[in-house]
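User: Hi! I have a protein structure encoded as tokens and I'd like to know what sequence might fold into it. I'm fairly new to this, so please keep things simple.
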């Protein structure tokens, strides 16, 4: 199975327009190192999708926290959300679902270990969520986030999620 199909299988979402997924996985280093003639007119990097995906992830995580910890204070929920969507956690999830094998990187980023950098993996994960949102709407995004974060939320108490990472 190719890496993109494997990623779709893990996410439980098949793209109707796979170009969205490809854009979500295309790092800016690839665009910057490619000559204009080598790129198709429609190829762009994942930065705009990452921007949108950050908000999509935020609404999905906020909803899950609201449902999982009813009666919690707004400040507590905000701190829990911040602990769930940091680069280290999102990078780890990116690794678990196979994003490193799917990334489209420039040579420089490839040779400097870009496939394992939390920041690149976190950005790509957020971009993939945005691609799902554009391709299929908010409901499939919510289902993917619930799939990937649900066990963590179910196993954790609100106090566990409020502790900073050093305390954990």
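Assistant: Happy to help. Inverse folding works backwards from shape to sequence: for each of the 168 positions I chose a residue that suits the local structure. Here it is:
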């Amino acid at each position: 199975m190719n890496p993109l199909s494997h990623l779709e299988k893990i996410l439980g979402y098949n793209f109707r327009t796979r170009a969205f997924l490809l854009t979500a996985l295309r790092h800016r280093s690839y665009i910057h190192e490619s000559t204009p003639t080598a790129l198709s007119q429609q190829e762009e990097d994942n930065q705009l999708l990452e921007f949108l995906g950050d908000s999509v992830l935020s609404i999905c995580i906020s909803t899950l926290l609201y449902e999982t910890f009813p009666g919690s204070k707004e400040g507590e929920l905000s701190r829990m959300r911040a602990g769930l969507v940091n680069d280290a956690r999102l990078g780890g999830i990116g690794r678990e679902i196979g994003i490193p094998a799917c990334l489209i990187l420039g040579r420089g980023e490839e040779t400097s270990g870009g496939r394992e950098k939390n920041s690149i993996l976190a950005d790509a994960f957020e971009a993939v969520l945005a691609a799902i949102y554009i391709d299929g709407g908010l409901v499939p995004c919510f289902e993917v986030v619930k799939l990937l974060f649900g066990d963590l939320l179910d196993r954790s108490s609100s106090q566990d999620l409020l502790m900073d990472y050093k305390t954990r």
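A useful reference point when you look it over: Confidence is low (pLDDT under 50) at residues 164-168. Feel free to ask if any position seems puzzling.
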